[in-house]
Automatic annotation (TrEMBL):
Protein name as it appears in the record: LysR family transcriptional regulator
Superkingdom of source: Bacteria
Family the UniProt entry places it in: Belongs to the LysR transcriptional regulatory family.
Matching PANTHER family: HTH-TYPE TRANSCRIPTIONAL REGULATOR, LYSR FAMILY TRANSCRIPTIONAL REGULATOR
GO function terms (MF aspect): DNA-binding transcription factor activity; transcription cis-regulatory region binding
Pfam families associated with the record: HTH_1, LysR_substrate
UniProt feature coiled coil, ranges: none
Keyword terms, alphabetized: DNA-binding, Transcription, Transcription regulation
HTH lysR-type domain boundaries: 1-60
Length: 298
């Protein structure tokens, strides 16, 4: 005999109802069948679960310990059954979202927080990549969705256009470029450009569309380290305006007077594959992200 959920369900019912007789009524089974099932369990385990020396059978210490563990098994079984039911209703077991780190993450985090406040069975995983690394990981890992600055369109991809994100060419207030009345491209080449490292294939030289491509370039891992380097006066670079609004207002960072325009914008997209339609969790997070980003970037 192997241990099974039904045996512990019978044991639990006996204890809840207070007797074998009442348990048989509750379970719509013969009392002899219930007694036999418990006896088989005792024989299999080689120990007594019930003390039958009194008028009413009671749990032995070993039986009490086994019942405690059995309750955990019943709770787990109940959870598994509940998950299976939720999955059959259209909820995904797992959802993976890849985000471009150049986009403001706070709205995405707010969307995720709202989802966590709901009773959903889906496990959500979020990865942050940069530039070509977003789509590379999206395709390689078969992710469910990507929030991306730039991407390569494909027939099997559905792309939802979001509000534009403004980026500003800045340097620290005490950087030489910040005091110039007008900055030319050649003058930019004389200083260190700070940019974000592409997390795609390291063998491919993929440049950001806003990168100037000079010889003096420092690649950083993310926008937080880039902002820190800018504030230290290490160089100049493009930053999403939403990430440096306080520093611009305080004057710690200065928008450069670049002759080719120091203010640009790009249109991010929320992309997912058409051959793997979004389930309930995917649809919910899509709508929440669009709502949060739209209100943030107005």
């Amino acid at each position: 005999m192997r241990l099974n959920i039904d045996t512990f369900h019978v044991l639990n019912t006996i204890l809840q109802e207070g007797s074998f007789a009442k348990a048989s009524i509750k379970l719509h089974r013969a009392q002899s069948a219930i007694s036999y099932q418990i006896k088989k369990l005792e024989d299999h385990l080689g120990t007594k679960i019930f003390d039958r020396s009194q008028y009413r059978a009671t749990l032995t210490p070993v039986g009490q310990a086994l019942w405690t563990e059995g309750c955990k098994m019943l709770e787990l079984a109940h959870r598994i059954e509940g998950l299976a039911e939720r999955y059959s209703e259209g909820w995904e077991p797992r959802l993976e979202l890849v985000i471009d780190g150049s986009l403001p993450l706070a709205p995405v985090m707010r969307a995720l927080k709202k989802m966590m406040g709901k009773d959903i069975p889906t496990i959500i995983q979020v990865k942050t990549e940069f530039l070509g690394g977003v789509q590379m990981h999206f395709e390689r890992d078969k992710s469910d969705m990507m929030l991306v600055k730039e991407y390569k369109p494909a027939p099997n991809l559905i792309a939802l256009q979001l509000n534009p994100v403004a980026v500003v060419l800045v340097a620290a207030k005490d950087h030489e470029l910040s005091s110039m009345a007008e900055v030319s491209l050649n003058q930019l080449y004389d200083y260190v450009e700070l940019t974000i490292h592409d997390t795609s294939d390291p063998d491919k030289e993929t440049l950001d569309s806003l990168e100037f491509g000079g010889d003096r370039v420092f690649y950083l891992s993310d926008f937080m380290s880039k902002k820190e380097a800018l504030l230290m006066g290490l160089g100049y670079g493009w930053m999403p305006e939403v990430l440096i609004s306080k520093e611009l207002q305080a004057g710690d960072l200065v928008q450069l007077n670049y002759s080719g325009s120091s203010y640009q914008s790009f249109t991010p997209h929320l992309v997912y594959p058409s051959d793997r339609p979004l389930g309930k969790a995917g649809t919910m997070i899509k709508d929440l992200i669009i709502s949060e980003l739209s209100s943030t970037m107005k």
